[in-house]
Structure formats: C-alpha cells, structure tokens
Amino acid sequence: MAHGVEAIIGLEVHVQLRTRTKLFCACRNAYGAEPNSLTCPVCLGLPGALPVLNGEAVRQGLALGLALGARLQPVSTFYRKQYVYPDLPKGYQITQGPVALVEGGTLEIPADPLVRGGGGTLRAGIERAHLEEDAGKSLHGDGRTRVDLNRAGVPLLEIVGAPDLRSPQEASDYLKALHRLVVFLGICDGNLEEGSFRCDANVSLRPAGSDAFGTRVEIKNLNSFRFVKQSLAFEIRRQASLLERGEPVIPETRGWDAAAGETRAQRTKEAAMDYRFFPEPDLPPLGLDPGEVEAVRRMLPELPEARIRRYRERLGVSEEDARTLMQSPAFADYFEALAGASGDGRAAARWMLGEVSRVLNERGIPIQAFSLEPAALGALVRLVLEGKVALGAAREEVFPALLAGEGPADAIVRQRGLGRVPADPVRLEALVRQVLAAHPEAVAQIRAGRDRLRGFLVGQILKAGGGALDPKAVQAALDAALPEFLAKP
Ligand SMILES: [Zn+2]
Questions:
Q1: Number of domains the chain contains
Q2: Residue 175 near residue 199, CB atoms below 8 Å
Q3: Which residues, by Cβ under 5 Å, contact ligand 1, an ion?
Q4: Nearest one of 81, 77, 65 to 284, comparing CA atoms
C-alpha cells in the first residue's frame, strides 16, 4: 500500500439461511430444483397474497446474534424496499427497517501485523444483522434471459460489519471466521458457488492517523475468499494511485472481473436509487419472546473459537492445524472421533490433515462420503503409537488395505507380516553405541546444549535398524546410553 495511507474496509455479507421453507410462505427453500417449481402466490407477489413470517428463520438469526454477543432487539420491523427488476415480480423486497433483529456484536479475528504493527486478536465490530427475502435469479443464455423465481422469498440474513478492517488479509480472515460461524451454527450450508454466502466489500483510503473517512467504493457480489482479497488489494492500489495524482475517488459500485484481475465501475452512487422504504403493512412488528430467546441459547452448539481453543489446549493440536481441522463440522467431528479412538489428538490431527485429506482430495469427496469409520482408522493409529507397526508401513500399506476393506488394522498387519517385534535390548544397545561412536560431532553439539540433535541421532539409529525399530524404544535406549558419551569429550 502507498506510504502513509490507511485502508478502511467493511464487509456486508448475505447469508442464505438453512430453513425448510421460504421466509414468508410454505414453498420449499431448496437449490437446484426445476426452475419456477418452488413458487406460490406469496413469493410470486400475486395480488391479495399475504406473507407469514417463518419462525425458524427468526430463531436462526437469534442464534447468530447470541454467538456474536449482539443486542437482540425486543421489537424489530419489516419494510418494503421498492425497485423494478425482472427477477422481483412484486416490485419490492421485504427487508428489515431502521431497527434490525440483531444489533452490535463482535467477531474475533487475527489482527494483521503488517498494518497494525503487531499481531494479536482483533474484535471486529458488527453493526447489525437483519432478515430479508432474496430476489429471483436471471439466467442468461442463447441470446435470451429467463427468470427463475425459486429463490424469490428465500430467507437471508444480511450481516453488516463495522469499518474495522484495515487490510485485504483482515477482510479475508473476517469472512472466513463468519463463514465458519454460520456453518457450525447450522444456519447456512456455506456453499459459496451456489451463492449461499456472498459478500459486498466497502473500501476507502485516508491518510494514516486521520479520523475522517475517505470516499467509499463498494465492490459487489464477491463469492470467494480469494476474490475478496484480490479485489480489495486491487482497489486499494487503484484508489492510492488516484489520490497520489491528486484525482478524486468517485463514490461508486464496482464489480470484480476475476479473469482481468481488476475492478470495473458499474454505477455511480449519485445515480443510486431511492427505494422509497416504508413499513410493510401486511406484517406486524416482530416481537421477541424471552422464553424463545432462552430456548435458542440453550440449543447453541459449542462455538468454533471455543472448539479451536479446546483442540489446542486439551488435544495438543497447533493453532493452525486446529483451524484447518475446522474446515467443516463433519470433518471436525470425524477428527474428534478419531482422537477418541486413537487416544492421541496430535496423531489424529496428523492423519486427518495428511492421509485422510489426501484421499478426500484424490476422490473429490467430502468426509461424509469417506468409507472408513473413525474407530477402524483409530485402531491403526493406535498400533503406530504403541510401536507395533512402523508409521511408514502404516501409511503406505495398512491404510490403503484398510480403505480397500481388507479387514481390521491388526489383521492386515499380521497377514502382511508388518508387525514389529520388540527389539532385543542387547542388540539395540549395541546399535545405539555404534551410531553414537560414528557421530562424535552430533554428541559434541548436544554437549554444547543443542538438544535438537537428539532427534537426528534417533533418525540415524532407526535408519541403521532398517525401519524395523520402535522409535520409543530407540529414544529410551538413546537416553540410557548418551550420558556416558557426553561425559567423555
Ligand atoms: Zn412461495
């Protein structure tokens, strides 16, 4: 970024809620059905049809509000936002007015040390989250445009973030944290390609240290974490070079052209529409029942950040691995079951992020379609931990055989003769002494305090043993023999 300039970023995210039916009618809320097969007089906006609010959508909005530590508004109202568009047959969209169901709240993300001069955690503010209905979808092709109204009336939660983000990295981290939150709360399927989670980004620049806001540009319809990062980086460079040349930034809406790698002007804000908002006469104000709020609170699952902390503190997994394990609720659940079955969280994490992920990627399947039960894989991980089979043999031979359905891990190890017999202690000691004698420089380094060299020696002993030795036994034999070698320089 240009020197002395600060970027101010705020994101607006549209989350498609995972309700059974639409926001104001009994039509099914589903993706991919025959076009216009999921419609009725209400979502088609036919005269005389009356909307009825979906309680499940309200409960999902409340779940998000509680997870964000937000204020839940005792009474919020619905408004009509009027505009003319082919995929909006009613001529207006029902959305929430000045008072939203959810107001305030924060989302914890890592602070970007490159722009803040230090790391740590940033509590990014949420301004509000309100319920609204989605419009239909225009399908362009063969020189024609068709309209599919299956999506008209589908419940959305629009989550408006405060302008608290200072870099594309923070914007991407915010979006990932919000995505993880709504998916783990079970209120959104999180499918970015199908548009279940989409984002508009507002960005302006100002001189570093200033409190004023510069002219804001909005980038519309970003449907991937990468596009958010790339488009913001481009937009910051573009605005900085305008400011450097003394040219004004025009307040406008821009789109991201992924192929060209640039944002393009779509419409200026001066020409922005007047939506003629007014309270929706067919819907009463939405009043919250404290009992219902309490019921939603009781049903909240363990929140993602708490789960990541538990993986780190109780299961010994690194921060980065813990976040990767949280790629989906099913993946995290499988990991927990594997950690339980093998009795070792760290080993379970290594298998999940190594062999299991490799197979899922190769087959292009989610963990739900993975054929091995956590208990079956856990038995193999345990054999490795107990030193009964070498890790290499477990990965390369036993695991593929397990996947091929050749039976339980211990039977495969037995049938293929992969089992490790406990090393003869006398032979092991001789081997350890032989390796120590062959590496006086490593011994000297350990004597000088470089303890890391122990690992090197273990590796040399395992190699000398032809891969048949149990690392734990080798470690113990090394610990026993080393003091004598350290004593004589
Ligand atoms: Zn309907």
A1: 3
A2: yes
A3: 25, 27, 40, 42-43
A4: 77
